[in-house]
Fold this sequence. Notes:
It is a single chain. The chain is of the alpha+beta class. The chain is 60% helix and 14% strand. The protein has 15 helices and 9 strands. A hairpin with a 2-residue loop joins strand 7 and strand 8 (580-587). It starts with 5 loop residues before the first helix and ends with a strand. Mean pLDDT is 72; it is low at 1-17, 40-46 and 224-237.
Amino acid sequence: MADIKTRDVVKGTIKTIDKAAVAGERMKDAYVRTKDKAEHGVYSAENNPDEYAADRMTGATEAVTYEAVHQFDKQGRKGLETTKENISKARDYVQQKKKTPSEPKTPQQAAKQQAQKQAEKQMQKKGAQRTGQRVSHSADKTVKTVERGKKTVKQTAKSTGKATVKTAKGSVKATQKTIKTAEQTAKTTVKTAQATAKTAQKTAQATAKAARAAAQAARAAAKAAVVAAKAVAKATVAAVKAIIAGVKALVAAIAAGGWVAVVIIVVICLIALIVGSCFGIFFSGEDTGSGMTMQTVVQEINDDYQSQIDTTKANISYDVLEMSGSRAVWPEVLAVYAVKTTTDPDNAQDVASMDESKKAILKDIFWQMNAISSRTESKTETVITETDDGNGNIVETETTVTQTYLYITVSHKTADEMADHFGFNDDQRAQLTELLSDENNSLWAAALYGIGATDDAIVAVAMSQIGNVGGEPYWSWYGFGSRVEWCACFVSWCANECGYIENGIIPKFAGCVNGVQWFKDRGQWADNSAQPTPGMIIFFDWDNPDGSSGPQDGLSDHVGIVEKVENGRVYTIEGNTSDSCNRRDYPLGYYEILGYGIPAY
Length: 601
């Protein structure tokens, strides 16, 4: 009996199953291509709520469709795998039977065994046919299932797409309603904001009026407070400086005009300490109700000093006057006064204000530091005179004359010598040294001259020096070891007191010619036809053929400071005029006036 050709059946079955799998793959590929086309050709840019809703719904539909196809394909592949396993088992069984060895049998057994084999072959043949039919039926079923899945996908996609479109339209309508509602809300908000703004504006205007009224009241109160507390407040800052070294910067700021912002804090916190501070001298330029200021008292003492010199000259008959020496500078006088007055164990007083008793103390200290002495001396000298005999010959004649010389000598004590005189302790000496440190020069200028950095500052400084004889403070400050013609040194010293040399406003010069050239080089020069203003530097070219200056030659012989111009005359303050600091006046345009240096104040 012929063997059953199971292999052919299996091959045919496998081909059928492969075709079913290929069909499933093609459906999947078709789905993927359809999906790609949809992604690249269906969607448009989502420029509005309608497009956004439609795109979201389309995406959801595609997701559902893809999942359905995927499940169908998965089930078909599972069935195919099961069929392949059954065929493999049948093949293994047949091969096993073929390999089983036969045992020797009797004729009866062999006939019986042969009959069994034929029966088994018939059964195997029928089983294989049935298996092939089942496999073919299973593959056909899989294909049909996949086709039904495809139809279902199409129907589902179609119905879902319709539902999506309807839902999208509903979403669009809802979005449009939302937009309208938002527009209405925005309009309402704008109206509310406008009303609120108007109310806020009215409130702000009312607040501003109230603030202005409050500011006016505050300014009035501040003015009243400043009048009563200005000197005390300034002294407060100075007192802090004596205790805390860092307050030096605060004092400088106050002197520069920033003290008002500090007044309240200083007065509240340190008023008890201020009254006894020696540094209150820096703020003694304010009138606190006595009708006196430090400037007026200093000027009064200067006048007394000059009056004594003038009285000496008036009461003594002399032929030649010679003056020498110099008086103490005012910062040293005031520093000694401040330390002694504020640390007096019997009657300590503040120095931020001025009254009659304090003026008396200051005058006493001034005259202890300055002394004027005079003496006369008669000298018999031979005088040679030259005359012309009328023939062009010079004739010298010797005569003997007796002349009276008046010698006026001004001497002074330094601050250190006064500290020894008064027996200052270490603390008092430390205060004295601090008061006279270079960094306080601008504070001394404010206290002595009542000036900041105005164009008449140098005038105030020069006026305070009227009466000084010999010029030693000026030429020694400049750096000379002995007396020189000191008019230019005086002008330079006054400029330095104001900070003008440091700032490049006025040069430091000892020769008048150099001073003229400095101003001319900068285009800051006017000839004697100009009408000067206070603070200009006036230069002279003396016409003195028989004197040391000789005839006018266009070179400056003397210099001073313009004080003012009144009634066609220019008033000046000059150093080294009759060997002293003094006031002079000349007609405007006077021929001996060379011209004016114009500082850029």
